[in-house]
Specification:
single chain; Rossmann fold; 6-stranded parallel β-sheet; 3-stranded mixed β-sheet; 10 helices; 11 strands; 42% helix
Length: 312
């Protein structure tokens, strides 16, 4: 699919990931006037009539809007995590079907995978082999249902809907609010505040042994656009870096890059979340030729630099 002459609706287009997707579309030659970004203050996508309104005249939908955050936000808002994410994606895909939109790109999440999958790295074929990690199960299951919907609509209506499962993202413009942020921005902020206060230690959740995989936001944006252009099959695709790091090593790396030399105090009474997260990314490379390019430490440096320039 050549996107240059398409009207493209990007929900969440003003957000962290969406803003990078928009920039890359423009760099590919898509006119700014062809990119539609419904803002939540104007269009609450939990309401059916708004989904129909924003969908009219659209050729392609890239659905990025989500109510999303770290473990703390998930624990405090399990009902909202489920309902908001479920209803937005479900209604948007139905609106796209009714209005004969040419392509719908649904974004899934690593949180949809079973807490204890049959193999690591996580393979797309194992998505249904167990229940997700409890702290983010409502979010993960809501997102998992959009794969069911995409496959069912393709089978019955011939809808061209694809489903991409992303790992945790990081990079410039991320959310650094400690009440809702994911692990990397939360730790960067924690270290920066400890430096400002000249604190001799920082507190960290869990024991540091859990592992995570991270993908730089610009790489994620590139993968999404490439899949929109090249992929049209019912099977989901993992989008990640294919590399894992322990939370302990991650925090130690952030401390080193930010020149912080205080003690790290781990609070094992707080949850670790899922024990390991690592995606099998071979399907993405095989089907759409995507492979993450950004070196992890280089990406961390860019994220830290953006935060210290813009939010401190």
């Amino acid at each position: 699919m050549n996107l240059q002459n398409k009207k493209i609706l990007i929900t969440g287009g003003g957000g962290f990931l969406g803003s990078h997707v928009v920039e890359k579309l423009i760099a590919r030659g898509v006119p700014v006037t062809n990119i539609l970004i419904p803002r939540s203050k104007d269009y609450d996508l939990r309401r059916w009539e708004n989904c129909l309104t924003v969908m009219r005249g659209v050729d392609v939908v890239i659905h990025l809007a989500a109510f999303v955050g770290g473990i703390k936000l998930n624990q405090q808002n399990p009902g909202k995590m489920f309902y908001d994410n479920m209803i937005m994606g479900t209604q948007l895909m139905e609106a796209a079907r009714q209005l004969d939109v040419q392509k719908f790109v649904a974004l899934g999440t690593v949180c949809a995978y079973p807490k204890v999958p049959p193999r690591i790295p996580f393979n797309e074929d194992d998505l249904w082999s167990g229940y997700p990690e409890e702290t983010n199960a409502p979010y993960g299951l809501a997102k998992r249902m959009h794969l069911v919907q995409a496959q069912a609509y393709r089978q019955q209506y011939g809808t061209s809907a694809i489903y991409l499962m992303l790992v945790n993202l990081y990079g410039p413009r991320d959310k650094f609010d400690p009440e809702s942020s994911h692990v990397i921005p939360a730790l960067i902020r924690k270290v920066q505040e400890a430096k400002i206060k000249n604190s001799p230690y920082i507190d960290a959740w869990g024991d540091g042994q859990a592992t995570r995989e991270f993908l730089y936001v610009e790489d994620a944006a590139e993968a999404i656009i490439t899949a929109t252009e090249r992929y049209n099959k019912p099977e989901p695709i993992n989008i990640g870096s294919g590399k894992e790091i322990s939370i302990k090593k991650l925090l130690e790396t952030i401390c080193r890059l930010m020149d912080y030399h205080g003690e790290i105090r781990w609070d094992a009474s707080k949850p670790n979340g899922q024990p390991r997260r690592l995606l099998d990314v071979s399907r993405a490379e095989r089907e759409i030729g995507f492979k993450a390019k950004t070196d992890f430490e280089e990406g961390l440096k860019k994220t830290i630099e953006w935060y210290t320039k813009n939010l401190v």
